[in-house]
Amino acid sequence: MVKQEFQSFIISSGLLKRLVKVDIYRPTLFDESSSMNVLFINDGQDLVKMGFSKMIKNQLGAERTLIAIGIHAGIERRQEYGVAGIPDYLDRGNKAFVYSRFILDELIPYIKSVFPTAKIDKKYLAGFSLGGLMAFDMALEYPHEFSAVGVFSGSFWWRSKSLENGYVEEVDRIMHAKIRNKKREAHLRFFLQTGQLDETADRNNNGIIDSIDDTMGIIGELKRIGYEPNEQITYLELPDGKHEVKTWGRVMPMYLQWLDQLK
Question: Does the domain at residues 4-261 carry the CATH identifier 3.40.50.1820?
Answer without folding.
Answer: yes
